[in-house]
Amino acid sequence: MQLLTGPVPLLATVLLLAGLQPAHGQLRPVDPVEWRDLDAPSWHFSVGADVLSGQKASLAGTSGLLLDLAAIRAAWHLDRVVLSLSAPLLRVFYDEEVFATPTQGARPSDGGRRIDAGDVVLATLVELTPRTTAVQSALRFGVRLPTTDEAVGLERDQTDFFTSVAGRVRPAGWDISAQLGFAILGSRAGIDQTDPVLFMAQVARDSGSWSPILQLTGQHDTRENGDRRGTEDLGEVRAGLRVGTERWIQVMAVKGWADFSPDLGVSIRLGTWF
Predict the structure, then answer these.
(1) Which one of 86, 87, 155, 258 has the fewest CB atoms closer than 10 angstroms to its CB?
(2) Beta partners for residue 252, in sequence order
(3) Sign (positive/negative) of CA torsion 59, 251, 86, 21?
(4) Rounded to whole angstroms, how far apart are CA atoms 121 and 87?
């Protein structure tokens, strides 16, 4: 296989090769493509927090309140490529109910809290079509890196790879996009990996300095009896509002529909271009 040359293609190739290594657990599905990264002049940075009730921690066998704090995201836009890094720097989980015996080295519930770092996601977004076309398309691929303590029981401490193809149309002030892809999730549940389908969609009203947003995102293992501890099906609907352009705030309500997604929650982000 011939590697690409140049700083940006080379980094994209490195990320791709990293994702193809033997397959990090996640409590949340992959976020939809952030198309606004392609509008940023160079750097795009955001920070925020998520508060989620009724979240299940599969490996710990408990459900409760999840706090993702200091959730940072940095993206670098260069020509037709966006490189991004995201992670909740602090993850706090309050055990409220036990639904299963802990597995894979996770400690049993003591009715208290579990504290860990969140998963680090490195991703590359490649614009495939000019922004002047009626239908835009992009390719995204990336990796989740293991940063967690498996004894805490919030993550699988495995590396994941994901990729998807995204399409976007913008008719008369609307911004509509969808994605379809797959992931290779490292597993410790008696198998090497699981390979769920990833699906995402977003509808937003582009009204200048404010934009209502509706998102759907999730993952589904198509195999019979595909749900395994730590890699269960996930699904969320998110609805909210983003205010601002170069500097913005976004507030989203979150509702999970899959068994291992949160019952209800709220997500807040503050961002800027520079």
Answers:
(1) 258
(2) 240, 267
(3) positive
(4) 6
Window from 29-38, 88-97, 227-236 with minimum mean pLDDT = 227-236
Query: Can you give the pTM of this predicted structure?
Result: 0.85
Nearest to 21 by CA among 199, 145, 181: 145
Got the DSSP string for the chain? -PPP-SHHHHHHHHHHHHHTS-----SSPPPPP-GGGGGSSSEEEEEEEEEEEEEEETTTTEEEEEEEEEEEEEEEEETTEEEEEEEEEEEEEEEEEE-S---TTPPPP-SSEEEE---EEEEEEEE-S-TTSSEEEEEEEEEEE--S-TTTSS-----EEEEEEEEEE--TTEEEEEEEEEEEEE--SSSSEE--EEEEEEEEE-BTTEEEEEEEEEEE--STT---TTS--EEEEEEEEEEESSEEEEEEEEEE-STTS-SEEEEEEEEEE-
pLDDT in tens, 177-187: 999 999 988 76
What φ, ψ does residue 42 adopt, rounded to 5°?
A: -155, -75
